[in-house]
Amino acid sequence: MKTLVLSMISIAATVAAMTACTSESDGIDDLTKDAPVEIKMSAKVLNIETRATGPINDVNTAIDDIGFIRKDAKPADANTIDWTTSPTEYSAKIAAGGAITFTPVPYYPADKATSAYMIGYHPKRTVTSGAVEYTIDGNTDIMYAERVDGNKEKTTALTPNFNHLLSQLVLKITGGTTEAEANAAAAAWGTISSISVKSIQPKYTLALSTGKLTVVTNDNEATAINFEAPASGFPTIATTTDDAGYCMIPPQGSQITLAVTTDKTTKDVIITIPERTGENPRPANTTLAGEAYTVTLTFKANEIESTASVTAWTPVAGGEGTVD
């Protein structure tokens, strides 16, 4: 798998407001000027990808399984909208060319003084009390777009920005720099069958009014979240540094431990992520939403060394650690 460069996906939507030209001699215009105005959106960014599972990346495919919720209100009341009570729900898809289609088709309020307010998220789930629930599985990308609004006469562009809410671990594997090292490591460890992130609570709720992802407190026992291996499976241990899959997890505030399982043994590997100072600081061993961390595991005859660095979304310098 190629190193994933995951950027914030900016989806700009344009609302076409239908206007009618009236004239004293034209009775047809009097009949159509108050007709419902469909809310239309189209994406400015054409290079968008989605998969049934997996991280979203900038390639020229479509985004499916988008959800929107909606409330109508006067602009003066926009900040007091209660999103927990019966918002209107929509399913949406974004075509590779940028066009967004909704089910059902949304229309603006007939009253031009009332606006439609909409919030987007991915993947779509059933909304309960203004929130949706997700079970973290390692290969589902969760995104959120803050509220946008328009009315039947507004013609300026709406810009819902879909942000990643999870952290991503991108895995690479090598057996060292020489044939002797790689052969000794391959003989000691054998064939890799699975790699997982240990002790992750899998159930989370997303509050759609705020975009906040919160861990469920009841019936949510910590579990291991598996890396999604490449289609060809985990690579063999060799002198090359090979892609070995990815795993998307909620942001973490403590050191991450991987469980590496081969046909000969299972080994825990502690990952050390470096502190970031200066602009946008981050404590050591903390992962943030919207950042991808490249983890390189170096297999040796008697140990596995780990090196971690932060890749795009936000590139920073790397760190390393060793497990004996």
Question: What is the element layout, followed by pairings?
Answer:
Blueprint (H helix, E strand, L loop, with lengths): L8 E2 L2 E2 L12 H6 L8 E2 L20 E11 L14 E7 L4 E5 L11 E8 L8 E5 L7 E8 L6 E2 L2 E4 L2 E8 L4 H11 L2 E9 L2 E5 L4 E4 L7 E4 L15 E8 L6 E7 L3 E6 L20 E8 L4 E8 L4 E8 L1
Parallel strand pairs: 12-20
Antiparallel strand pairs: 1-11, 2-10, 3-6, 4-5, 4-7, 5-6, 7-9, 8-14, 9-11, 12-17, 13-16, 13-18, 14-15, 18-19, 20-21, 21-22
Primary descriptors:
Immunoglobulin-like, signal, 5-stranded mixed sheet, Mfa-like_1_N, 5% helix, 324 residues, mainly beta, 8-stranded antiparallel sheet
Tell me the domain tally.
Answer: 2
Largest sheet: 8 strands, antiparallel
Number of strands: 22
Portion in strands = 35-45%
Overall SS class: mainly beta
Name the shape in a single word.
elongated
Tell me the number of helical segments per DSSP (H or I, 4 or more residues long).
2
| CATH architecture field of the largest domain | Sandwich
Helix and strand pattern: EEHEEEEEEEEEEHEEEEEEEEEE
Mean pLDDT: 81
The first-level CATH class of the largest domain is given as Mainly Beta
Give the terminus-to-terminus CA distance. Answer: 28 Å
Q: What level of helicity do the residues show?
A: under 10%
The main sheet orders its strands as 1-11-9-7-4-5-6-3
Q: Might you state the CATH topology name of the largest domain?
A: Immunoglobulin-like
Radius of gyration: 24 Å
- The residue ranges in which pLDDT falls below 50 over 5 or more consecutive positions are 1-31, 43-52, 313-324
Query: What is the assembly state of the chains in this entry?
Result: single chain
